[in-house]
Amino acid sequence: MADTFDLTVIGTGPGGYVAAIRAAQLGMKVAVVEKWPTYGGTCLNIGCIPSKALLHASEMYEQSRHQFSQLGIDVSPSLNLEQMLTHKDDTVTSNVTGIEFLFKKNKITAFRGTGSIADTGKVLVKPDEGQGQTIETKNIIIATGSEPVGLKGITIDEDKVVSSTGALSFKQVPERLLVIGGGIIGLELGSVWSRLGSKVTVVEFLDRILPGLDSEAARQMQRTLQKQGLEFKLGTKVTGVEASENGTQIATMEPAAGGEATQFEADAVLVAVGRKPYTDGLGLDGVGVATDERGRVRVDAQYRTNVKGIYAIGDVIAGPMLAHKAMDEGHAVAEIIAGQKPHVNYATVPSVMYTSPEIAWIGKSEDELKAADVEYKVGKFPYTANGRAKAMLATQGYVKILADVTTDRVLGAQIIAHNAGEMLHEIAVLMEFTGSAEDLGRTMHAHPTMSEAIKEAALMCGDGAIHI
Ligand code: FAD
């Protein structure tokens, strides 16, 4: 008789692989099922990691052309796109093979093929070729992630009309790139191709970019990206894209509220209007696992579905579609299955957009605090007053800290800065411990660092900063 596993995880993205490793560390006999040729899911293969490789490389190219001379470095850079894509691919390979190593190290049994839940305690694995097999298992975690949302009237061919996946691999720089969607993915990939030479136009249905982000920060980011050459058409919807006879793409668009249609010609189109949970072929109906109105697997606070022994985490359930959210849920659910009582704090999920400068935010925005009638104070310190930023030609941006008027407790923060994503975490730790702005302001920060702006913004929630 085949082995019975304590746990079988379907999907090896950040949610699935972390759950599998943590469960193995806790002594469980673990299997994973993955339908792609490599582990790591969207994040490692076609998401976070390759996009950051291109963002870094394209930023270096941009800096070498426009900033190095000011630092006394005279160079004449030229773009080798093939090598830049090779760097991206090498980065992906290095990361996905790292997961393979971790599976082996933790004695996790990996099955290749599409997994479906045949019954409670039974996962059917169908490889692309050959016979399927059934895994007997005490528990199942669904960690199948998400896929890009399409748009009516637009056929994605991943060549000229692409999702984020195709936009990671254009073989040549499109002269004119139309980006549909002013969210993080559209703006990151729009920035990459803009730096490499594309004329980028971003069309957004709403009258602002980056919905969900503090509106002051979103306006500032829009101005910054405009200065970098990106154009924005807000309050506009694209109703169709067709190829012209000469091979260009003709997009038809109109005001979001309806009105006269216009046409826009581009060489390539990136559709980045969001992602949806991926549950195709999982057999959820057969086993009776409930989903919500948006197709997400319904879970309780312990990630349990309505069917005993079946759990779900990551992009396939409700909440922000972020790799670190999926990872923390993976960590937690493994511990829950092992009988522990972990907790994921959804009030402190950090978000980062890796443009230049980056924007990183956590907790409440000013808009949310106003809407909730919370009395708050603001400390906002600009990078033009930070010594390290001046030395690095990185004076764009600010740190904004929002604290409760009565208790001084930090409720949220936004940082627009070079490396904002790295700096945000001291605020995350502070918020985890329900710390105050004064705690942050009285914490000694090394000088000269970009992080000193956080201390100064915190001081501005009290008696005032020193350097402004
Ligand atoms: P996924 O990573 O989507 O993994 C799901 C896995 O399940 C896949 O490997 C899939 O093949 C497998 N699978 C699906 N169905 C089956 C089945 N039936 N049988 C077997 N295997 C199956 N997030 C961040 O936090 N930071 C970023 O910088 C960031 N950048 C991004 C950039 C881009 C371009 C994109 C597209 C996404 C980005 N994200 C980022 C989002 C992040 O990638 C996701 O939130 C994260 O990957 C979700 O993890 P997951 O484990 O839930 O699912």
Draw up the topology in text.
Elements: E1 4-10, H1 14-25, E2 30-34, H2 41-46, H3 48-66, H4 81-105, E3 109-112, E4 114-119, E5 122-126, E6 133-142, E7 146-148, E8 161-162, E9 176-180, H5 184-195, E10 199-203, H6 215-227, E11 231-233, E12 236-243, E13 249-255, E14 262-266, E15 268-271, E16 275-277, H7 284-287, E17 310-312, H8 323-337, E18 351-353, E19 358-363, H9 366-371, E20 376-382, H10 387-391, E21 398-404, E22 410-417, H11 420-423, H12 425-432, H13 437-441, H14 452-460
Parallel strand pairs: 1-2, 1-6, 2-3, 6-17, 8-15, 9-10, 9-15, 10-11
Antiparallel strand pairs: 4-5, 5-6, 7-16, 12-13, 13-14, 18-19, 19-22, 20-21, 21-22
Helix pairs in contact: 1-8, 3-4, 3-5
Bound molecules: flavin-adenine dinucleotide (FAD).
Brief overview, please?
This protein is an alpha/beta fold and 468 residues long. The protein has helices at 14-25, 41-46, 48-66, 81-105, 184-195, 215-227, 284-287, 323-337, 366-371, 387-391, 420-423, 425-432, 437-441, 452-460, and strands at 4-10, 30-34, 109-112, 114-119, 122-126, 133-142, 146-148, 161-162, 176-180, 199-203, 231-233, 236-243, 249-255, 262-266, 268-271, 275-277, 310-312, 351-353, 358-363, 376-382, 398-404, 410-417.
Description:
The protein has about 475 residues and is α/β, with parallel strands linked by helices. It folds into three domains: about 210 residues, FAD/NAD(P)-binding domain; about 110 residues, FAD/NAD(P)-binding domain; about 110 residues, Enolase-like, domain 1 (2-Layer Sandwich), CATH 3.30.390. Helices cover about 30% and strands about 25% of the residues. It is built from 14 helices and 22 strands. The strands form five sheets. Strands 1, 2, 3, 4, 5, 6 and 17 form a seven-stranded mixed sheet that branches. A five-stranded parallel sheet has the order 8-15-9-10-11, covered by helices on one side. A five-stranded antiparallel sheet has the order 18-19-22-21-20. Helix 1 runs parallel beside helix 8 and helix 3 packs antiparallel against helix 4. The longest helix is centred in the first third of the chain and has 25 residues. The radius of gyration is 24 Å and the shape is globular. It starts with a strand and ends in an 8-residue tail after the last helix. The site of flavin-adenine dinucleotide has 36 residues, from helix 1, strand 2, helix 2, helix 3 and strand 4.
